[in-house]
Amino acid sequence: MSAPFAAQPGPVDPAHVREVVARVLAGREFAGLGDGGVSVLERLRAWLREATRHLHAWFQSLPAWVSWALAAWALLCLAAIVAHLVHTLWRARGAPDGRHAPSRQASFAALGATSLDLDAIRAACRAAERDGDWERVVRLAYTAAILRLDEAGCLRFAPSKTNRAYLADLARSAAPSTQARFARMTEDFERMVYGDRAPEPALGRRMLSELEGLYGDVQAVAL
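-> structure tokens emitted (223 positions)
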């Protein structure tokens, strides 16, 4: 741009400057510069169309078995993503009675019991209360509640079964008071085992009280 100005003797003519600038800006490298965001979007669309065209051409140039393998791999990845999303959403759902029931599996070890003998578990629970082992009290009281409900036919116990599944069983077979009582016990148990709730005496005594209440109002209804 300096050459046209250098060739002129004396002052630079503003009209000539505008003419030179307009001629430079009309070049291909400055095409669409004054169109703002629309030009950028158009350029992006054109680039995407070109990239898609090249990708499609490359995909078609592959052997048939490679194309099918890539397509199957893409479908499997999509299915895995969808399955993970559905699983995550399902875990985030609340319990049937409106409470937020954790979906972790209440394994036999997490329950703290060493046998399925209900009387032995209740005796161990009382011993833990005398020893001030409130964490063990909570675990054993919750185990006893599950086994008592199983004995009454309100749910079916399985070591790998989720607490949500137990609550779903109760929603079909137990009285609302029993459902609410077990839901409260589940919430306290999960908050202590998987959350930040300390195994304090008040929590242990509440679990024992809920357990005794459950024994009193549980109804033997076959599934």
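The first helix runs from residue 2 to 6.
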